Amino acid sequence: MPYTAEISRNNPSCFLFLIDQSGSMGDVFASGESTRQKCEGVADAINKLLQGLVIKCAKEEGVRDYLNVAVIGYGATVGSAYGGQLAGRDLVPVSDIANLPARIEERKRKVEDGAGGLVEQSVRFPIWFDPLANGGTPMCQAFGRATSLLESWVLQHPNSFPPVVINITDGEATDGDPSAPAEAIKKIRTSDGEALLFNLHLSSVASAPIEFPDSESGLPDQFAQLLFRMSNVLPAHIRDQARNEGYRVTDGSRGFVFNADLVSVIKFLDIGTRPSNLR
Amino acid sequence: MRLFAQAFWLPKSGSAEEEYEDAFWPKQLPADREAEVSDFRVAVADGATETSFSALWAKLLVRSYAEGRLSPERFATSLLKLQERWRKVVSRKPLPWYAEEKVRSGAAAAFLGLHLTNRTGESYEGLWEATALGDCCLIHVRGGQVIERFPIKSASEFSNSPFLVSSNPLASEGWQERLRTVSGSWVCDDSFYLMSDALAAWFMRDEESGRAPWEILRDLGTADTPVFADWIGELRSTHRVRNDDVTLVRIDLAA
């Protein structure tokens, strides 16, 4: 059965995030309560996600390399979007992500005090990735970059849980039709199955997100339909997680959100990257 | 009572011995069939892989039970003390940001304890009481029959998200409703098996298929039987046992 391989240090898995950094990412989210720029919201979501992945892999002796993670930006240029000491690196073992954030900020958060109240707690908040909004949307190039990185990764990890690619964008590709480059990503495979490509379309108009659709019929335009067709059907473990989080999903639901606000970006990233079988 | 106890354990495949996150106590089990014992406590715990310092947490739980503190009557106060103890130990040295975050959420473990006592004036029969939180299991065998399965009764009851007892008081809220206890009586030649979930799930599946898995457990460690690690390795490679830490404590009550 595909998508059931154990994720271990000998058999790590891989997440690759493709982040649209085109000029329009400087606009504010059109739906949801947020008044933040899309690029800022996405940067925050990715930093939180990286933090969460590190914590999942952390044990008392340090961080176990269960995962390799790349964050590739595409806008004026296409390349690694990590800052600090990781700048320029593509697929990075999660222990390096843990130990080499670009900087660590102090943030406050409210936690339960155990007596029914809330107390403010100071926490260290690591940052790897800063917002950027500049240039066009070279999605085909970004998909090509992902394909070449993942082709060499699967050669080194032929029996691993297949790579998961999450593309976050707010607009149409400016360098051609991304369908064929998307298919190239989805053909990359390990003995446990083919790479998974999920797409998050950020809102440009104020209307509710369409999450995990199972058909393109309710989608409003050709671009949304294209992103839907490029997205894989959710494998069983992700479908179950989405269902547990209260989403209405069917066996045909795809890893796609149309018109995502900031909340649905964070939820989608969390559901799509929860390693199911860490050993 | 005269009892003979033996523990078998193995870390996950691909993990080192020091990464084993199950625990059992006492470490030195009574192995002399001639020695008389009137009261005996033993416990097994299974620290959760997803949490940090879970081996320490599992060990604190089993030790406290085996030494008579984490009894059902004193569970609440003993648990609070153990949670405090865990926090003190893990906060001894400064931690990197990710370890700090993980410590804040706490360690989790499944827990099972068994307490055997003589019936007054008797050493050939007595009473037992078991306490469990989570999916470590107890099997009681008499005359070639399983007469108790606790707290899980069948293979289908194992899930990916059992309730675990946490070192973080907030995360362990609700344990009172999940704490299970059961009691019964024992006679000479009875056997008890305490297992962490991966082996317990195999046991129940095997039994439900009409086989007698206790015969394999009964003979482990004797001549002409496979070494425990080889046997588990075979079960793992044929997907009959999940790749997880495995612990078995076998107790034979001698005549």
Helical content of chain A (DSSP H or I, runs of 4+): 25-40%
Indicate the proportion of strand residues of chain A: 15-25%
Radius of gyration of chain A (Å): 18 Å
Distance between the termini of chain A: 18 Å
Number of strands of chain B: 11
Shape of chain B: globular
Find the structural class of chain A using helix and strand composition: alpha/beta
Low-confidence stretches of chain A: none
Overall mean pLDDT score of chain A?
Answer: 91
Instruction: Tell me, briefly, the overall form of chain A.
Output: globular
CA radius of gyration of chain B: 18 Å
Helix content of chain B: 25-40%
Whole-number mean pLDDT of chain B = 93
**Number of alpha- plus pi-helical segments of chain B:** 7
Estimate what percentage of residues of chain B fall within beta strands: 25-35%
Report what the structure shows:
- The complex is a heterodimer of chains A (279) and B (255).
- Helix content of chain A is 29%, strand content 25%.
- Chain A contains seven helices and 14 strands.
- In chain A, strands 1, 4, 5, 6, 9, 12, 13 and 14 form an eight-stranded mixed sheet that branches. Chain A has a two-stranded antiparallel ribbon with strand order 2-3. Chain A has a two-stranded antiparallel sheet with strand order 7-8.
- With 255 residues, chain B is an alpha+beta fold.
- Helix content of chain B is 28%, strand content 31%.
- Chain B is built from seven helices and eleven strands.
- In chain B, the strands form two sheets. In chain B, strands 2, 3, 4, 5, 8 and 9 form a six-stranded antiparallel sheet that branches. In chain B, strands 1-11-10-6-7 form a five-stranded antiparallel sheet.
- The interface between A and B is medium-sized, with 23 and 22 residues.
